[in-house]
Amino acid sequence: MRLSGPLESAALLTVLPVPARAAGATRGVLPWAPLVGLVLGGIASGLAVLGDRWISPLAGAVLAVAVLAALTRGLHLDGLADTADGLGPLRGRQRALQVMHQSDIGPFGVVTVVLTLLLQVACLTALLETREGWPALWAAVVVARLAMARTGLPGVATAEGSALGTLVAGTVSVPWFVGWIVVVLGLLVAGTAADLELTARLAISALAGLLTAELLYRRARRRLGGVTGDVMGAMGETATTATLLVGAIAL
């Protein structure tokens, strides 16, 4: 793997400053996306805990969701909106791709983003009222980037006209992806102080997030012919939401 990979991933997936030489590269974006998730999850979890202690669980949840949107330039939310507009109405493949490439957001996209953010805040508020709050949020953010990294595995189809999809296709090897899963599981055990019951609940939540993102990928493959940059972002937001939702249900 390229040593500049983490910087390339941060350049595309965050607003964090990186050297100019890494800003235009893409080969390291998806392989190192989980590492970016670790950083973003740590920042969001810290703000969530502070907001909870200083104000209320609701304030902590809003702060965490807001900072994630700000640190990612809202790109994943934009991808979610575009994907909802493309996949929502009954339309052909070419028309769906055309709609997704447009700069405006349609009604399906607006409703999807609003409901997704509300659900994330509601679930995180409930989680922050327990000791599972920050580990669940951290896990959700990392799982989102694992779901995005999944689109770089060999054999993943790319939709016609997707520049980003073409550039990152096949950049993630299966052993590398499995290695990240092992690392995340190990960090879950460490972050929960080896509380096996809590670790198991978080692992189930993470699995639910990955499976939900997988369903979205398969839907995009059937309707669009494969993934696009928008679909990658949508998979990330979907995984985040599903992980938080199952975590809140399992309280």
From TrEMBL:
Which InterPro entries does the UniProt record give?
Answer: CobS
**GO annotation terms (biological process):** cobalamin biosynthetic process
Needed co-factor(s): Mg(2+)
Q: Which GO terms describe its molecular function?
A: adenosylcobinamide-GDP ribazoletransferase activity; cobalamin 5'-phosphate synthase activity
Location relative to the cell? Cell membrane
Q: Which domain of life is it from?
A: Bacteria
Q: What is its EC number?
A: 2.7.8.26
Kindly report the protein's main subcellular placement as a broad class: membrane
Q: Could you tell me the membrane topology recorded for this protein? A: Multi-pass membrane protein
Q: Does the keyword Transit peptide apply?
A: no
| Gene Ontology CC entries for this record | plasma membrane
> What enzyme class is recorded for this protein?
transferase
Tell me the PANTHER family matching this sequence: ADENOSYLCOBINAMIDE-GDP RIBAZOLETRANSFERASE
Report the function annotation for this chain. Joins adenosylcobinamide-GDP and alpha-ribazole to generate adenosylcobalamin (Ado-cobalamin). Also synthesizes adenosylcobalamin 5'-phosphate from adenosylcobinamide-GDP and alpha-ribazole 5'-phosphate.
Family classification: Belongs to the CobS family.
Q: Which HAMAP family match?
A: CobS (MF_00719)
What is this protein called in UniProt? Adenosylcobinamide-GDP ribazoletransferase
